[in-house]
Amino acid sequence: MPLDPDDRDPRLKGPLAGLRIIEMGQLLAGPFTGARMAEFGAEVIKVEPPVTGDPMRNWGHHRYKDKSLWWPTLARNKKSVTANLRTEKGRDLVLRLLAGADGLIENFKPGTLEKWGLGPDELLTVNPRLIIVRVSGFGQTGPYAPRPGFASVGEAMGGLRHINGFPGEAPPRMHISLGDTLTGMFAVQGLMMALYQRDALGGGKGQVVDASILESCFALMEGTLSEYDKTGVVRDASGTGLANVSPSNLFPTKDDKWVIIAANFDPMFRRLCTAMGQPELADDERYATHLARGHNAGELDALIAVWTKRHTAQEIDEILGAHDVVVGPIYTIADIADDPHFKARGMVRTVESETFGALKVPGITPIFSEDGGDIAWLGPETPGEHNREIYGGLLGCTDAELDALTDEGVI
Questions:
Q1: Which of 241, 365, 378, 379 is least buried, going by the fewest C-beta atoms within 10 A?
Q2: Rounded CA gap, 26 and 139, in Å?
Q3: Reduced to 3 states, what is the DSSP secondary structure of residue 356?
């Protein structure tokens, strides 16, 4: 059941306030799932290995005071306890936490929890209402289930890599762990749907939510499977634009920048032609319809590029914006940090931290009209920072017991 208001941490605000989630696992996909819950008010208790903690605490080459600048975003609003899950006492502590939790998020290799005696059968016996979210490379079943899996392989086998990049070149990756964060978002959806079924629809019992990186990437593949099934077409990489869709591409500017212009919708294309001072193009049979523009995409994009090269990126943005045409520059993170729209929407936040001082971090999305998420703190500074608060205050362990567990290497 949701936490009694008297037991809630008053710093945690948002639509999920009152939920208690235990996060087990490390690196990115599972912790990203927990981060989304914590941002919107859930009490997320992260279980880390003693001493070393989650490896994400030390990931990233660009550091400040020898601390990872990735960690404050991934761990914000979370509390940290430590437990050596390879010991019986460590597992017992976690079981006691799970007995009073709404959900568990874990992203160990399939079979790991079962090996420790913490599989769904055991956990649902301890807490029949527990929602167990399992994040893995290939899912908990199927012939690939035992394989370890990272975002890069999920993106490759899920189809995303093949359609990315330029024809005839090696399929590149995004310079982020896209597959992990995609899976985290699907895992959050699954967790929230399971909670809704349990509480709002009267199901009353827990269940397992199985989220895989492979399938999360595949879910973004639009109509490619049906296209292949009925036409035999294998969608390939299309460079900077979309195959058979124009204009929807990158275009060069006078000041050596790039802008995206996406005006493949007929009325918008007419507005683009007007903005370019070439309204006759909208009635040219080669470009008058979506299909015609797709057939003649190369030459149409070339015509538009001639016009964009006469103007700076700022001028293009102003001209096309005035004509209600979809346009936008290619931003670096420096551009985002200085952009007034990002600032006005609260997407570039400055939060005080003991380690980092005033630190810019991403805001929280989506934005709620009432009781949205917030950033209370930038994550636990050290592994086990909340051991005494959680194990002592929540489970009733005495200081002497906690000291003994520390000496034994359990926490």
A1: 365
A2: 17
A3: coil
- The tokens for 26 are 């490390």
Q: Is residue 53 domain-shared with residue 192, that is, in the same domain? A: yes
Residues 55 and 196 in one domain: yes
145-171 confidence digits (pLDDT tens) = 999 888 899 999 999 999 999 988 999
Residue 392 vs residues 37, 43, 389: alpha-carbon distances, Å:
24, 16, 5
The active-site residue out of 54, 102, 180, 301 is 180
Residue 247: predicted pLDDT: 93
Q: By C-alpha distance, which of 1, 2, 30 is closest to 15? A: 2
| C-alpha to C-alpha distance for 385 and 81, rounded to whole angstroms | 6
Residue 58, judged by CB atoms within 10 A of its CB (0-12, 13-18, 19+), counts as middle
Please check whether residues 146 and 272 belong to one and the same domain: no
Do residue 77 and residue 212 come from a single domain? yes
Element (DSSP H or E) covering residue 43: strand 43-48
pLDDT digits (tens, 9 = 90+) for 292-328: 999 999 999 999 999 999 999 999 999 999 999 999 9
Q: Indicate if 88 and 182 belong to the same structural domain.
A: yes
Domain that holds residue 371: 5-220+364-407
Closest CA to 291 of 332, 254, 260, 246: 246
Which pLDDT belongs to residue 353? Answer: 87
Same domain (yes/no): 316, 387: no
Q: Is 234 among the domain residues?
A: no
| Structure tokens that stand for 30 in this block | 């599972």
Residue with structure tokens 């102003």? Answer: 318
- 370 and 278 within one domain: no
Boundary of a domain, candidates 290, 318, 335: 335
Asked about 180 being catalytic, the answer comes back as yes
**How confident is the model over 84-110, as pLDDT tens digits?**
999 999 999 999 999 999 999 999 999
Note the pLDDT tens digit of each residue in 235-280: 998 888 888 888 999 999 999 999 999 999 899 999 999 999 999 9
Can you tell me whether residue 399 is helix, strand or coil? Answer: helix
Residue 344 lies in a domain: no
Distances in whole angstroms, Cα of residue 95 to Cα of each of 24, 131, 140, 167, 306: 12, 14, 21, 52, 66
Chosen domain end from 319, 335, 351: 335
Cβ atoms of 381 and 369 closer than 8 Å: no
CATH code at position 10: 3.40.50.10540
Decide if 346 is inside a domain.
Answer: no
pTM for the predicted model, two decimal places: 0.90
